[in-house]
Amino acid sequence: MKTKVLTKIALFLALIIVSGFIAIPIPGIGVPIVLQNMMIMLAGGFLGKRWGTLTVGSFLLLVLVGFPLLSGGRGGPAVFYGPSTGFLIGYLFSAFTIGFMFEKVKKLNFWTVFLIYLIGGAFIIDFCGSFSLAYFSQTSWFSGLKIAAFFLPVDTLKAIVATWITLRLRDYTFREDKK
Q1: Residues 116-149 pLDDT 10s
Q2: What are the DSSP calls for 15-57, one per residue?
Q3: Is the separation of the CB atoms in 120 and 89 below 8 Å?
């Protein structure tokens, strides 16, 4: 692994960890609004499907072994059995999907990048989260989907910010579209 790749992975791992300190608790849902999912989106966008997924997987592994890296200083195997379980699994799918989608797109503009982050980031993370929300609230999956939809407006705003960052810093990615 090249030093440049390792440095970018370490940088995004640090950004994911630090962004966990910024959280807005949502009473009754059990899952806070966090900036971590925006950093997950950016990891997939900047690092690509391979390195982005590896970075997010490393983050989740650190959480699993007990590092308190999630909002509220949570960590350990118990966090993978709760309302946020689906969202955490969605992080992994999101980084891969975003990296994959960026590989397939030839020309980047605001709307293309925004749709990649919205679909690959917000929709996938919230969709995966709907399963654990439904299970732990003991309701139907459709009800879990409605609860997860509560996060979509804020996640859409995060996708807009991620789009702006990506378009401003696209020369620092692993993608081939560097114009």
Answers
A1: 999 999 999 999 999 999 999 899 999 999 999 9
A2: HHHHHTT-EE--TTTS--EESHHHHHHHHHHHHHHHHHHHHHH
A3: no
Domain that holds residue 70: 3-172
- Give bridge partners of residue 70 from the DSSP assignment: 74
CATH number where 163 lies: 1.10.1760.20
Q: One-letter amino acid identity for 120?
A: G
Cα separation, 165 vs 171, in Å, equals: 11
Place of tokens 């849902």: 29
139 in helix, strand or coil? coil
Domain count, the chain: 1
Task: Return the DSSP state at 68.
Answer: -
Sequence-ordered list of residues with C-beta below 8 angstroms from that of 4, at least 6 positions apart, any chain: none
Containing 138, the helix (H) or strand (E) segment is none
pLDDT tens by residue, 67-89: 999 988 899 999 999 999 999 99
For 147, the token pair is 């609860």
Q: Is 11 exposed, middle or buried (0-12, 13-18, 19+ CB in 10 A)?
A: middle
